[in-house]
Amino acid sequence: MTDLRILAASFFISASSAAAECSIPHFQLPPSDPNTTTFELSLDYPAAGSELDSFSTETDFRSDWMGYLNEVLAYAFEGNLENDFVVQDNSIRSWFHTPWLHAGHSGREYVHGLTRERSSRPNELQNGVDAFFQNWGVGFYNEAAAGTLGAIWTDFCNPSVDALADVDFPEGSVSFKVLFTAASEAEIDALEGAPTWTAHIHTQGPPCRREDPCPREERTVTLLQIDVAIKDRRATDTGWVFGTFVYDKRLSHLAPWERLVPISIGWGNDPEVEPEEPLFENIINEDFDGVFFGWDARPHMGWNGRANGPVDNPISSCVSCHGTAQFPRSDTFANILPSRLTLTDSEIRRVYFQNIRGGSLFDPDVVPRPPFQSDLVVPVALDYSLQTQLGLEQLCFAWIDSRPPFDTVASKPAVCPSRQPEAESLAAFRTMGLTEAQMAPLERFLGDIRDEPVSKDNN
Ligand code: HEC
């Protein structure tokens, strides 16, 4: 072999092992028992632009919202239910995951690829049940959406900056997510008879902090909620329809996985609607009043009656949280009203419940958090995909922490903001000109967020 060929061969080995380190399926290795089936990622994305499978229906989500959502659920379940959501075994249509959700304390577990979601607070799942419960979920994208993901993730160690400049999922893109809770039917009455999975999750209920060891163990988790998101041009204000299903034990004549009923739908944020006035872009299934909402700790599903599910924060909604999808994420506003920030109802609506067209930015003036360089960067809009946001974030954290493969591969992923020079104080930069009262609510955003839970919010 000539020197050149040796060089080329060694480059190939390091490039491909780096790629493998950038598409790791799970956070912690499974036991080396050959009989244990373990989660594998479906990342073999199709080329965009070709004939890709997409969802379409004549059913109008405004006039028949439950009919619409039930069609989406049937589409999402077809070929997946019988394979326990091992989407690679689906012989009817292809489904895909997103990379880089293995990293961090909340990273994918090895049985089903679940990531840790927002924890349920005391009394949220059921009035009088005074405990924290951890929740875990796994999401999938259909083929139409995967064409867009493939254009972004041409290289799992270095996503395409060009593709990220113009993220626009095509019509008929669908994503869905199955969410399980560590609460059991013995603890939460509504879960009686619900399907269960085994998952390798945290031993403790409250969220794990960065400094905690956060040990995991195999435990039983129970199906609580299923989320769907559909790119539908009839949703003229946002481009997206978000819907959620809950387990309904009252349907005991059906098989457990068929006992799923729509609880809410939203295709906008109703930014003009005053409190107590009827909403136009959000609908809740009142049949679950007293089952999944309707008491002090959980008065409604989402903020002032907007769409959300039982796992979600009652001061947010599907559309408002997903509308913040951009990279870097908004440091100043986060994706939800920070608990210590007091705003009037109309201020909240102006910031968090504006209707954002896919492709527009929630916070154009974003400044990256430490440990990244505090210069203003040009953020990219991610068209409501928060898994893409998290994946990019985890990739950049791995680079800045020199975790594999960035312990040997020196090059910075082009999308990541630069490293912060030692002496620079981001806090000083960010808070120039702010009074002490204005500072207080911002404090929690000024810290380093590496290894915070991959969850919906940390309020
Ligand atoms: C406060 C924030 C927040 C709220 C509210 C929220 N989500 Fe999400 N959602 C996330 C985050 C963060 C992710 C990515 C990580 C993950 O999969 O858990 C996500 C992921 C998803 C995904 C996978 C595709 C994607 O966009 O990343 C779907 C589908 C989804 N959510 C639907 C919903 C629906 C439907 C609702 C309302 C019932 C909802 N979400 C409410 C934060 C939120």
Outline the structure in words:
- The protein is an alpha+beta fold.
- The chain has a domain at 3-315.
- 19% of the residues lie in helices and 14% in strands.
- The chain contains 9 helices and 11 strands.
- The chain has helices spanning 3-21, 65-77, 143-152, 161-164, 318-322, 345-352, 386-400, 426-430, 436-442; strands spanning 95-96, 115-116, 135-142, 174-181, 196-202, 216-231, 240-247, 260-266, 282-284, 326-327, 380-381.
- Strands 1, 2, 3, 4, 5, 6, 7, 8 and 9 form a 9-stranded antiparallel sheet that branches. A two-stranded antiparallel ribbon has the order 10-11.
- It is globular, with a radius of gyration of 22 Å.
- 46% of the residues are buried.
- Mean pLDDT is 87; it is low at 1-13 and 422-427.
- Heme C binds next to strand 3, strand 4, strand 6, strand 7 and helix 5.
- Heme C binds at residues 115, 117, 137, 139, 175-177, 227-229, 242-244, 307-309, 312-313, 316-318, 321-322, 335-336, 384-387, 390, 454, 456-457.
The gist of it:
The chain is built from nine helices and eleven strands. It is of the alpha+beta class and 459 residues long. The N terminus is likely disordered.
Oligomer: single chain
Distance between the termini: 59 Å
Largest sheet: 9 strands, antiparallel
Order of helices and strands, N to C? HHEEEHHEEEEEEHEHEHHH
Low-confidence stretches: 1-13, 422-427
Rounded to the nearest angstrom, the radius of gyration is 22 Å
Structural class: alpha+beta
Q: Helix count?
A: 9
| Ligands bound, unique | heme C
Helical content (DSSP H or I, runs of 4+): 10-25%
Mean pLDDT across every amino acid position: 87
Beta-strand portion reads 5-15%
Strands, total number: 11
Shape call: globular
